[in-house]
Every structure is written in C-alpha cells, then in structure tokens.
Write a sequence for this structure.
C-alpha cells in the first residue's frame, strides 16, 4: 500500500505589506496598502487597525487575520483611512523576496509548488511524522522571513489550503 498523500499549505500573512515596508523604509506603524491595478492586494496590520478605528476587536471576522482584502478599491480606503499609504504591487520584487522561502521549503521536500509569493504547497508524504516536519518547516520559514506563517496539513491541496487560511 502506498503512503497516504500529505500536503502542507503555507500561507504567510502580511507578506506583501511587510516586504513593501522593508523595501521603502516605512515603519510598521504606518498604515499601508499594496495595490495591483488600483485594487487592494493586502493591508498592513496598522491599516487594519486604522480601519477598525483603533479597536482590534471591532474588525470582525472578515478583517481579522492576515490583511487579505483582495479587490477593495483605493477610493473606499482613502475615504475611511486618509493617512493610508499606497504601494504598487511589483511582481518581480515579490518573486525575488519569496525565493529564499522556496529554498527553505525545498530543503524539506523535493515537491514544492508556489501558488503565489505568500502561498506555497509542500508535499510531506513519507517525510517522517508529518505534523513535526510541518512545524519544523514553519519555524524555518519564520526564521528566514521574519513573519509568522500559517500552515494547513491535509490529505489534499484544497483541504490543506483551507486549513492554512
């Protein structure tokens, strides 16, 4: 009987805003939005806090988590958070920033599938105790990029990705 398939989905919350802040020298306390074609890709933690009026508990389920506000318009955000800074999405920059993370994943498994710079699937089938290997990989990613990744371990890609969200 072949080993059961085990895939780890790794999602790195605030990947785009953190790397944009580092690149532009913007302090983490400044509200920031990364935009692609005038639509929001991600909001920084400071931007989420500003949207909530300074109360993290009032963000609600849709805003809690990782700043993923895909599709929100600039106009809507400028109206609600006038101090918000906008950074354009730079595909080449983010791909380069994610390369060390992909290399860390490749050290754990020969089968690594980057879906986006902030979202990676890693096959851990037969890699020993998968939960422990998954924890080690997530810790290695955190040490590499300085951001806390979320991980979902499951028998297929869809469930793993859902568990990482």
């Amino acid at each position: 009987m072949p080993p059961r398939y085990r895939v780890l989905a790794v999602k790195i919350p605030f990947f785009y805003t953190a790397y944009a802040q580092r690149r532009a020298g913007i302090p983490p306390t400044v509200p920031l939005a990364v935009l692609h074609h005038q639509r929001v890709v991600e909001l920084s933690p400071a931007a989420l806090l500003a949207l909530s009026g300074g109360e993290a508990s009032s963000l609600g389920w849709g805003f809690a988590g990782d700043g993923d506000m895909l599709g929100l318009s600039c106009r809507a955000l400028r109206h609600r958070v006038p101090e918000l800074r906008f950074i354009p999405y730079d595909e080449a920059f983010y791909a380069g920033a994610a390369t060390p993370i992909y290399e860390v994943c490749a050290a754990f498994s020969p089968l690594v599938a980057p879906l986006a710079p902030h979202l990676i699937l890693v096959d851990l089938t037969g890699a020993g105790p998968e939960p422990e290997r998954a924890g080690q990989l997530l810790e290695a990613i955190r040490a590499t990029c300085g951001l806390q990744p979320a991980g979902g371990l499951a028998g297929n890609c869809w469930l793993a990705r859902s568990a990482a969200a």
